[in-house]
Design a protein that fits this description.
Layout lengths: L1 H15 L11 H5 L3 H23 L6 H17 L7 H14 L3 H23 L9 H78 L5 H28 L5 H14 L3 E4 L8 H5 L4 H21 L4 E9 L2 E8 L10 H11 L4 E5 L4 E8 L12
Parallel strand pairs: 1-2
Antiparallel strand pairs: 2-3, 3-5, 4-5
Helix pairs in contact: 3-4, 4-5, 5-6, 5-7, 6-7, 7-8, 7-11, 7-12, 9-11, 11-12
Amino acid sequence: MKAANVNSIQDRNRWAWLWLAYTGFLFVGPILEPSLYVWLGTLAVFAIFLGVFRDYVRSTDQGRPTRLWIIAATFALGLVTFPWNQGGSTFFIYTAAFLPFSIVSVRRVLAFFFVEALIILAEGSIFHAQRGAFHVGWPNTFIAIFMMVVIGGGNIFFAQQKRADCQLREAQKENIALAAVAERERIARDLHDVLGHTLSVIVLKAELASRLIQRDEASDHQRVATEIADVERIARTALSEVREAIGGYRSRGLAAEIESARQTLDAAGVSLLLDSDAVGGSPSSHAAHLSAAEETALSLALREAVTNIVRHARATTCRLRFVTEDGRRCLVVEDNGEHAITREGNGLRGMRERIESLGGQLSLERDHGTRLLIDLPLRSQVPARTAVS
C-alpha cells in the first residue's frame, strides 16, 4: 500500500511539470523586442522560478508555512519582473493557481486573491506614469488581475473536488475496514454458536458411550456403536457448518433447528416441551412468515439457548414457545434448571447483537430457572395472529 502511494505521488509530480508551459509568456516580450538586458533578466528569473516550482512540487505539507512561503516567493518574483517584462504576470497566475491547493479555507483563498489584486493594481498605478524600460500599461495590469481571478477561481473548484475525492476514498477505506471487522465478528459469533452446540453434543454422547463401555454389558454394545456413529455424524455436520460460517452462514431453518434441539436435549436427559396451547401451525408454517435474516437469527438463538441449558443448567425440562401477536414476533425458551453463571458470555452477547441488528430485543430472566425472550418486530405484510409451535 505504501509503495502504491509513493508511485502515485511520483506520477502526480511528473505531470505537474507540464504546468511550466505557462512560463512561455515570459519570453514573448524579449522575442518581440529583443534586448540583451531583458533576455538576461528573463533567463535569471526563469532559473529562479524553476527552483521555486521544484520545491512546490515536492512539498506535501498542505496548509503549512513551507508552501505558503513558496507561494509568497512566486508572487514576489512576479512583482519584480512585471515592471520590465509584462510576461511576469505569469507568476501572479501561478500564485493564484497554487493557493487553492495549499489553503483549505475558500474564504481565506479569496481574501488572498483580493489582497494580491490590490497589490498588482498599486504596482500598475506606480509604474504607469514611468517611461522607458520600467513601464506598466493599464491594459496589462487589468489583464493580469483578470487572469489571476479566472485561473484562481477555477482552481478553487478543482481543489475542492480533489479534497472531496480524497475524503471519499478515505471513507471507502474506512467502510471496507469496518466491513472486515463486522465480518470477523459475524464469523466469530457463528463459529461460537455452531461449535459450542455441536461440541456439547459430542461430549455428551462420548461420555455416554464411555459409561456404557465401562459397564461392559452385551446389551449395551449396540447402543455404544450407535452413540459413536452419532458422534461421527455430528462431527461431519459440524465441519460442514464451520465451512458455511466462514463462507457466509445460512441457517438450516427453524423447524430443523427445533428437531436438532430435541435430539440434543434428549441426549442430556432434558425433555423438550412444545407449548400445548398451540393455535394451529407447525414450526415450518411459522418460519414461512420469517425473512431469511429473521429465521437465521432465531435458529441461532435457539441453538445457543439449548447449548447453555446443556452446559450450565441442571434442568429436566425445556419449554419452547413461538408466538406472533400484537405486532410482535416472540421466541420464548424456558427451563427449570439452576444457572450459577450470571455473566453474559460471548454466545449471549453475539445473540443479542444479532437480534438488535434486526430491530428486536432480547431479555433474560433467572428467577425460577431461566427464561429467554426474543422479541422481533412484525413486518407489515405478515398478518397479525397468535401462533405457537
